[in-house]
Design a protein that fits this description.
The structure is a single chain. The chain contains five helices and three strands. The chain has 119 residues and is mainly alpha-helical. The chain has a single domain, classed as Winged helix-like DNA-binding domain superfamily/Winged helix DNA-binding domain (Arc Repressor Mutant, subunit A), CATH 1.10.10.10. A three-stranded antiparallel beta sheet has the order 2-1-3. Helix 3 crosses helix 4. Pfam families: DUF742 (PF05331). It comes from Streptomyces inusitatus. InterPro entries: DUF742.
Length: 119
């Protein structure tokens, strides 16, 4: 059964408490479309509940935005928590694929014409 929005209760814990007052990720913030996945490392018992929730949800590839939706937290909060997990080696990231350049389209056209000529 899936969670319905009306079934969810908002967290009583404020976002600045979850991030321990931090708003900076310590580096370049993760883009919302960055894919994240938990590693096979054991979860340390000293993690915050939000860190545990992230690791539980990230058994497969999820975007930062999807993780934020699962946690019911703003993406900026999730970016800080994910940066912690990356630094601790508990999460691996796959950055978004950059947009193709015009030269890539030219190569694709050549491949398409080559395939069409064989048919």
């Amino acid at each position: 059964m899936t969670d319905r929005p009306e079934d969810r209760t908002p967290s009583a814990v404020r976002p600045y408490v979850i991030t321990r007052g931090r708003s900076d990720t310590g580096g370049e913030p993760l883009a919302w479309e960055t894919l994240v996945m938990a590693t096979d490392a054991a979860f340390p018992p000293s993690l915050q509940p939000e860190h545990h929730k992230i690791l539980t949800h990230c058994q497969g590839l999820l975007s930062v935005a999807e993780v934020a939706a699962h946690l019911g937290q703003p993406p900026s909060v999730v970016q800080v928590l994910l940066s912690d997990l990356v630094a601790w080696g508990l999460i691996v990231i796959r950055p978004p694929i950059p947009p193709a350049e015009h030269t890539d389209v030219t190569m694709l056209r050549k491949v398409l014409h080559g395939l069409e000529s064989r048919l």
